[in-house]
Structure formats: structure tokens, C-alpha cells
Specification:
321 residues; mainly alpha; Muramoyl-pentapeptide Carboxypeptidase, domain 1; Muramoyl-pentapeptide Carboxypeptidase, domain 2; 2 domains; two-stranded parallel sheet; metallopeptidase activity; Peptidase_M74
């Protein structure tokens, strides 16, 4: 969202004021467990699937919160005396994420290793063995997060690790930097998983890679040139060109002669299909796509798609599904 809309959001976004791009000790001051539920996908869902297996509720390791994962979550919640709603919020995360340390070997360690690989590029073998390499990666993360460095993965380390943003694979993406913000491509585990699925599906149509503008900084916080993108659930993508050269031939608007409405429509449909129930809104000012109910109008959104993802029970109503 561009600067023109800052005034209308400033009060609702006060809860993110503590998120800055400063020292690691400050970056995590507002860390919380990102809620995951049916329709989500990505690194955090994979961690849930490993943790369910640890608790005797094994399901396929798809990284997709599918019907099987939903059923296993509900069974786990029932067994633990939690509210049975299929939504993995703070209480369910807290019950799932058991403490692990050097010498442990189980599926909870696999969940940890998968998280460290996704969030910190740790390069660990996901084998469930909490050996020296995993211990080093944990200590490095704890130092990075500004929390106690003891190698023990308890509630605080789990919460900070799940909260930490993820970085997308660039296989089907070209990185654009329209506002001079560098690699501001970080977002929540779910947002990244959902974008990766959508752009992979679009790549299968043979119409080129998808340009990624800004998403967020590694630890959230204000991004110059934007009124949002503070909380890891806003992602800017560029529309598609008729020559499929959107990554090399320059930025266009929906009014441009080289704008490909049909291809852009496909991309938007794939974005929505990759995250059922978790796309709050897509702002893009093509009146035809607005009339079709695929996008919504907002000033300064002629030249990019602003995808806002959402979670169940998010601290801000702006991001609550």
C-alpha cells in the first residue's frame, strides 16, 4: 500500500510500532505464534505436521494445511483438552512445540530443523537428530533473536522461530526493487509458501517469471515508500506483459499497451487458489478485474498487485481472516 493511504491505517497499525529493523534484541519484541489453519501452506504448516507426528497424530508432510492435517489437529486438540476448532493458535502451538535439546531424536527435532532451514538457511539434514550441527544452528538463532543462548529450544525459542519471517525461493520470481529497499522480500512462513505455490503454477503456463516488489524486512517494521508491509502479510507483485518480458522490459500499468489482462487474471486466480480463505484483498486498479471481483481499487495501485494475506485471530483486524 502506498504512502497516500498511511493516515487511514496509522492507528490500526500501532501494535507493530515495536517492530524495527534495528538490533536483533529489538526485532522480536512483539513475537507471537502465527496462527495456521485450513488453506495455509508453507514452512510453519510443515512444522505443525512434524509436531503432530511427534504427538502420535501423523499426517502426510505436504506443507499444506489440508483436510488430513485439519483432522489431526482436531484430534490433538481433543486429546489435550483444548478448544477443538482446527486452528493452530497460541494454545495449540504451545502444546505442540515441546522442549528439545542436544541428544534428542524425534519428530519435534525435525520440525525445528525444518524451521531453521526455512527461516535462517541453516542447511541442516532434517533427520530428527539434535546433534552438534543442530545445536550450533539453534545457538546462532538464539543470538540472532537476542534471546538466551543456551541451545535449549523451549517456549521462547519456538515462539521467536515460528514468528521469524521466511524468504522466498527465486526459481519462479524475479526480484524488483522499485523503492530502493533492497531485498525486502521477507514475509511470514504462510505468505511465502502461498506466493511460491502461485508463481510456480503461473510458471507452468509458460508466460515467464513473476516480478516481486516489496514484501517486508526480515523482522518486519516500516518500509520506506509504504504505509503497510510491516507485519509480513503484504506482498507486491507486478502485472504480466503480452510479451512475457515483465522481468526485463520495465514496469507497466493496466493502461499500458503491453499489459496482458488475461495472463494477469490467471496469476490472480492462482494467488487466490493457493491460499483459500487466506487472501484478505488484492488491490489492483484494472476496472475489468475489479468488476469480476478479483481485485479492489485503491489509489496508487495502477502498476502493481498488492496481495494482503490474513490469518485466523491476528492481532490486527486488518489481517484477520
Amino acid at each position: 500500500m502506498r504512502l497516500a493511504t498511511r493516515a487511514s491505517l496509522i492507528m490500526a497499525m500501532l501494535f507493530t510500532a515495536v517492530l524495527t529493523i534495528g538490533s536483533p534484541a529489538q526485532a522480536y519484541a512483539n513475537a507471537f505464534f502465527h496462527t495456521q489453519s485450513s488453506g495455509n501452506r508453507g514452512a510453519d504448516v510443515l512444522a505443525i505436521q512434524y509436531l503432530l507426528a511427534h504427538h502420535g497424530q501423523a499426517t502426510a508432510l505436504t506443507s499444506v494445511f489440508d483436510s488430513s492435517t485439519d483432522a489431526r489437529v482436531r484430534a490433538f486438540q481433543s486429546a489435550k483438552g483444548l478448544g477443538v476448532d482446527g486452528i493452530v493458535g497460541p494454545a495449540s502451538w504451545g502444546a505442540l512445540a515441546v522442549t528439545v535439546r542436544l541428544g534428542d531424536n524425534n519428530n519435534a527435532v525435525r520440525a525445528l530443523q525444518a524451521q531453521l532451514n526455512a527461516k535462517r538457511s541453516a542447511g541442516l539434514v532434517v533427520d530428527g537428530d539434535f546433534g552438534p550441527a543442530t545445536d550450533t544452528a539453534v545457538r546462532n538463532f538464539q543470538s540472532h533473536a537476542g534471546i538466551g543462548v543456551d541451545g535449549v529450544v523451549g517456549p521462547t525459542t519456538w515462539r521467536n522461530l515460528v514468528w521469524h519471517y521466511d524468504y522466498p525461493s527465486m526459481t519462479n520470481i524475479c526480484d524488483q526493487n522499485p523503492d530502493g529497499n533492497g531485498t525486502a522480500n521477507w514475509a511470514t512462513g504462510a505468505a511465502i509458501g502461498q506466493v511460491e505455490k502461485a508463481v510456480a503454477d503461473f510458471a507452468g503456463t509458460g508466460q515467464g517469471k513473476v516480478p516481486l516488489g516489496d514484501a517486508g524486512f526480515e523482522h518486519g517494521g516500516t518500509i520506506p515508500g509504504h504505509a503497510s508491509h510491516d507485519v509480513g502479510l503484504d506482498v507486491d507483485l507486478w502485472p504480466i506483459r503480452t510479451d512475457s518480458a515483465q522481468c526485463t522490459a520495465g514496469r507497466i500499468t493496466w493502461q499500458s499497451s503491453t499489459y496482458d489482462r488475461a495472463a494477469t487474471r490467471q496469476l490472480i486466480q492462482m494467488i487466490r487458489a493457493a491460499a483459500p480463505g487466506h487472501v484478505k484483498v488484492i488491490w489492483f486498479n484494472d476496472p475489468t478485474l475489479i468488476a469480476e471481483g478479483l481485485t479492489a481499487q485503491l489509489s496508487n495501485h495502477d502498476n502493481h498487485l498488492h496481495v494482503r494475506y490474513c490469518e485466523k485471530v491476528h492481532p490486527s483486524s486488518l489481517y484477520d481472516c
